[in-house]
């Protein structure tokens, strides 16, 4: 057996003076490890007087067994012990599976930098010279307590954060479900994507950039010789824009003037479509005076008189309708106009165009005309006109599918940065 260093049984420095320190906040469990029973007794007596719970071990092996059985928080271990040294005990202690941290103080007469480095390397937190000075001991213990408290506070905050994240995840799951339902409801606002009115085929395209969007397109069938067509793009994105869009659609749906702002009654008790400029002015007044929202929207509203193939349109900030003539020429229609909901004094003027057999009219949102490629360059009206000519031989429904495919290929993705919407009017006498 190795002869250990002399260990005074009760040196003057270890006589526990009255402790003026306040009671500790938590009665922590301290393990004292020393092959000298007298040294253990001295330290244990002092620690208990300071309010700690204390257990003792005479060897490293016995200390490891106690650490497996008890939630030891602070360890005071002699470095030089027969059998397993304090250094090896520290190494094996750090390898134990534990729920919390254990603050480890090595008691040693060694103070060389190499030995200190070795102790830190195996996981010791602090060192205390022997014979033990009680003021230093108290300082080391309190330092350990501060670290343990910080770990406990961090664990508590992590636990609270995990609970908050779980709540957020539950909310996100609920929101995701609700948004999926909202998307289905918004898509249901455009129940039919393909219509035929005599020689005219009208096809609709609507694809929000997220779950829900601010674009909307639709057809108003007044039951006479004329039909109404509208394309709306509400400012912004997401839920607020979608709610605004749904509210606007409510003003453009229904079969009577009391339900649909685009309809008016005649003296004979019939219903007919109002002129496009009046519809735009009414929506502008409605948005500013009654709805009182920060949102505005662009609008392209048109009435098509089927027998004469005459289109009367109003453009309120929406992209220019693009007319592809049967001969291949593409013409931009309209002069822009002010969006709906910006100025109370804004007035909108209608313009007309007469379609010829074989003509195709595309009304689209800026999600199409300003669609950016992978490099950030926008599509633009010239490139869109080329696409219209390139796919001119396709039927109306296939044309919109091809246009969507072209945008996906351009961006390299199926989810676009902006809502995609379009109304396509195809004049094909004899095709129906």
UniProtKB/TrEMBL annotation:
Residues where 4-aspartylphosphate is found: 78
MF-aspect GO terms: phosphatase activity
Pfam family, one: Response_reg
Biased composition (Pro residues): 8-21
Example GO biological process: phosphorelay signal transduction system
Keyword vocabulary terms for this entry: Coiled coil, Hydrolase, Phosphoprotein
Record region (Disordered): 1-22
InterPro entries given in the database record: Bact_Sigma-Reg, CheY-like_superfamily, PPM-type-like_dom_sf, PPM-type_phosphatase-like_dom, Sig_transdc_resp-reg_receiver
Coiled coil: 134-192
Positions of the Response regulatory domain: 29-145
Name assigned to this protein: Sigma-B regulation protein RsbU (Phosphoserine phosphatase)
Taxonomic lineage of the native organism: Bacteria, Pseudomonadati, Pseudomonadota, Alphaproteobacteria, Rhodobacterales
């Amino acid at each position: 057996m190795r002869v250990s260093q002399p260990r005074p049984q009760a040196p003057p420095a270890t006589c526990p003076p009255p402790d003026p320190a306040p009671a500790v906040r938590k009665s922590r469990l301290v393990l004292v490890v020393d092959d000298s029973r007298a040294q253990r007794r001295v330290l244990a007596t002092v620690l208990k007087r300071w309010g700690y719970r204390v257990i003792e071990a005479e060897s490293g092996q016995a200390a490891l067994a106690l650490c497996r059985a008890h939630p030891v928080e602070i360890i005071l271990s002699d470095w030089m012990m027969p059998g397993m040294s304090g250094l090896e005990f520290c190494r094996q202690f750090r390898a134990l599976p534990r729920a919390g941290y254990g603050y480890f103080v090595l008691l040693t007469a060694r103070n060389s930098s190499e030995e200190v480095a070795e102790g830190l390397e195996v996981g010791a937190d602090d060192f205390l010279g022997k014979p033990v000075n009680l003021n230093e001991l108290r300082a080391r213990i309190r330092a350990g307590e501060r670290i343990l408290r910080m770990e406990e506070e961090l664990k508590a905050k992590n636990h609270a954060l995990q609970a908050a994240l779980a709540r957020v995840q539950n909310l996100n799951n609920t929101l995701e479900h609700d948004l999926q339902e909202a998307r289905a409801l918004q898509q249901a606002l455009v129940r039919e994507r393909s219509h035929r009115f005599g020689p005219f085929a009208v096809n609709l395209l609507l694809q929000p950039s997220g779950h829900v969007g601010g674009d909307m397109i639709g057809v108003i069938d007044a039951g006479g010789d004329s039909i109404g067509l509208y394309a709306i793009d509400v400012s912004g994105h997401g839920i607020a824009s979608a709610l605004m869009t749904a509210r606007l659609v409510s003003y453009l749906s229904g079969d009577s003037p009391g339900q649909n702002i685009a309809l008016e009654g005649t003296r004979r008790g019939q219903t007919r479509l109002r002129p496009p400029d009046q519809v735009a002015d009414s929506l502008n007044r409605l948005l500013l005076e009654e709805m009182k929202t920060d949102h505005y929207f662009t609008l392209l509203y048109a009435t098509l008189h089927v027998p004469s193939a005459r289109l009367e349109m109003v453009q309120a900030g929406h992209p220019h309708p693009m007319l592809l003539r049967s001969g291949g020429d593409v013409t931009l229609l309209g002069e822009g106009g002010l969006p709906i909901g910006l100025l109370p004094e804004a007035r909108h003027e209608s313009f007309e165009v007469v379609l010829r057999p074989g003509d195709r009219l595309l009304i689209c949102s800026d999600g199409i005309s300003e669609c950016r490629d992978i490099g950030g360059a926008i599509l633009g009206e010239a490139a869109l006109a080329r696409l219209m000519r390139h796919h001119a031989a396709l039927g109306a429904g296939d044309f919109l599918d091809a246009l969507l495919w072209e945008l996906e290929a351009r961006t390299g993705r199926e989810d676009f940065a902006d809502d995609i919407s379009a109304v396509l009017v195809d004049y094909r006498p004899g095709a129906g």
